[in-house]
Amino acid sequence: MVDVAQTENAKKKPQMVRTAVVVGTALEHYDFFIYGTAAALVFNQQYFASEDPLVSSLAAFATFAVGFIARPLGAVFFGHLGDTIGRRNTLIITLVVIGISTGLIGIVPTFAAIGIWAPIALVVLRFLQGLSFGGEWAGAVTLATEHAPPGKKGLYASLPQLGSPIGNITSSGAFLLLAFMPAETFDAWGWRIPFLLAFPLLGVALWVRTLVDESPEFKKVAAKDQVKKVPALEVLKHSPGRMMTAAALALVTIGGFFLVTTFAISYGTNTVGLPSNVMLTATMSAAILQIVTVLVTGYFSDSVNPVKLAVWGCIISLVVSFPGFYMLSTGIEWLAVFAVILMVQPMAVTYAVTGVILPRLFTADIRYSGVALGFNIAGMIGGFVPMIATSLLIAFDSSWLPIGGFLFLISAISLAGALISGVLVKTTKKLDEIV
After folding, report:
1. Whole-angstrom Cα distance, residue 419 to residue 424?
2. Taking Cα atoms as reference points, which of 148, 180, 163 lies closest to residue 356?
3. Handedness of CA 376, 61, 100, 34 (dihedral sign)
4. In this structure, are residues 296 and 351 in contact, taking their beta carbons and an 8 Å threshold?
């Protein structure tokens, strides 16, 4: 009877891992994304009011960027925990931090009510969001790949990437539903609902994540007494090139993504003059298709070299950068929706395989820290993308051309990262054997 029970439990383990990484990362992305949407639609008016809408948006996106500044710090802190106390326990902590900080944003009074303390409170809570997010994705892909059955590492590593489109769909969907509220009701309290939902969602995600066992590879490292005292320092001393390669590869999946979603919402509504529900529909539609793209790419990455898939994703992103923003600038509603969908999908291809490529760049004893640092350096840079793009609009009289060029540059950097990673991943297995 014991053997039967153990067999049944073994069968359930992969399913629990799949569910835990998807549910957890979906909540983290939902919490992180609703701030970006609110920054474009609400915070620029209620917390950073100015006579110039572009200046208000610039201030709101500056606080949006604070979350990304915190991400490398979160990568160091949670990467240390993940490589010393374990992947599972660390991922539970990241969930609690972001869930509580997001819920509290929903009760922060406006600037009109408490003055300068309102934007200060937003900055502090956004910083905590970023701190938590800095450890979440790296831990999820590390846990998923280390639990993956043979021949399915690519598929398992793509599952945490589903958190991004699911989080985007739910956050955009929440604001899209609220768009049907009377404007005065939405401005008064309606926009707070998506943030307050973080509290009950945290409970669900936390319960699911506690069902997962610790990573077998971390157990081996701990059993051999090979846990590093300061894993992040080991990465910086011995693998800085791998860390920067990881950052370059991930840049288009973060900076490029926020350019064609978070910034595009602000650009489409405030500059082009499209209704906010059109832009929210565009991002939701792109996210729905992104789920399919990630799953298909993840499935094929177990039989096709994932680096080749990343390279092609970056190349296609290069090709569509200028046409995409031109179509968005026309003000034609259906064309704007198509443009966002078109620009997101090649990024989704690259994003799907970063989860399997980045862990292969680092040995098991520093893997959580290495992946977290590389990914969140890209995250820190990517967090400034909406603010930089808004500054380009101001500097170039609202022209779409510099924005298209900006996406082209981001895609080119990630293409270089993909090509270099193809060389580096071949040596990691040999290094693991030495460790």
Report:
1. 9
2. 148
3. negative
4. no
Vertex 21: Cα angle to 17 and 22 (nearest 5): 115
| pLDDT value of residue 6 | 40
Confidence band, pLDDT 50/70/90 cuts, at residue 58:
low
String of b and e for 196-225 (b: at least 16 CB within 10 Å)? ebbeebbeebbebbeebebbebbeebbeee
Superfamily classification of domain 12-434 = MFS general substrate transporter like domains (1.20.1250.20)
Q: Is pLDDT of 304 > 90?
A: no
Question: What distances in angstroms separate CA 100 from CA 103, 126, 394, one per listed residue?
Answer: 5, 11, 36
Cα 239 to Cα 358: distance, rounded to the nearest angstrom: 13
CA dihedral 110, 112, 118, 119 (to 10 degrees): 100
- Alpha-carbon span 80 to 231, nearest angstrom: 6
The predicted-structure confidence for 336-380, as pLDDT tens digits, reads as follows: 999 999 999 999 999 999 988 998 899 888 898 999 999 989 988
Number of other residues whose CB lies within 10 A of the CB of residue 156 = 24
Residue 150: what pLDDT?
79
399 φ/ψ sector (left φ>0, alpha ψ -120 to 50, else beta)? beta
User: In whole numbers, what is the pLDDT of the chain averaged over residues?
Assistant: 85
DSSP string across 150-175: TT-HHHHHHGGGGHHHHHHHHHHHHH
Calculate the dihedral angle through the C-alpha atoms of 198, 201, 207, 208, rounding to the nearest 10 degrees: -120
Q: Does residue 431 register a pLDDT over 60?
A: no
Q: How do the domains of the chain map onto residue ranges?
A: 12-434
Query: Exposure of 100 by Cβ count < 10 A (0-12 exposed, 13-18 middle, 19+ buried)?
Result: middle
Identity (one letter) of the amino acid at 146? E
pTM here? 0.79
Spatial contact of 358 and 249, defined as CB atoms under 8 Å apart: yes
